[in-house]
Amino acid sequence: MSNIITLYHGSDKIIEKPEFGKGKAHNDFGFGFYCTQSEELAKEWACSSLKDGFANKYTLDIENLRILKLTSGDYNILNWIAVLIQHRLFRIKTPIAGRAKKYLTDNFYVNVNAYDAIVGYRADDSYFDYADSFLNNGITVEQLARAMRLGKLGEQFVIKSEYAFSLLRFEGMTTAERDKYYVLRKARNDDAEQIYQKLSSEQSDGIYMADILRWEIKNGDARIPRSIS
Fold first, then answer.
1. Higher pLDDT residue, 210 or 125?
2. Beta bridge partners of 25
3. Residue 107: which of 85, 132, 140 has the closest Cα?
4. Do 125 and 199 contact (CB within 8 A), yes or no?
5. What is residue 138's predicted lDDT score, i.e. its pLDDT?
6. What pLDDT does 187 receive?
7. 99-120 in b/e burial notation, b at 16+ Cβ within 10 A?
8. Considering the chain, what is the average pLDDT of its residues?
9. Whole-prediction pTM
């Protein structure tokens, strides 16, 4: 069985040699090179504005890589949220949110920097609103998980270590036409927004962030949804 996988990076540029240490610190999993195994999804991500983009194609030998799979059943949705909290900029709109950030970090955080690569969900556009609303006690953890399952949430493969960067091999690129892929990207975001608005208006007797704090729920608790695939 081959250990070589194919990855795509959506961008407005052709990137033949990704550089370790570059990028934005406030991405979902911090510094890294963000890819997907779906060429179509990469083309959507490439068209973040009304212009054509590129799906850069790479191969990667993963045989000796330490890979963290946050999408597996070994992790729950709060592990993912705790990682986001460490890297993305959340709005602290309620007193609960400030306490929640520390509690989730202390009890659910997974050190992504200890791995060569990460497989995880992409908190893009409206999907980030779900996480933000949960942190601020607006929706329950069950609603959060249901929204992720209902939505067309993208899965990303993130190259983290210098060693993993050295194994990336550029295999060419294809054009992402804005007339097709920007429309698809917008439709994905609009669908997520509709789900979010529906959830926000629902009454729920599930577990809110305030309950997690009050009951001191810890990692591994059976009440917290695990993989949201």
1. 210
2. none
3. 85
4. no
5. 87
6. 85
7. ebbebbeebbbbebeebbbbbb
8. 88
9. 0.89
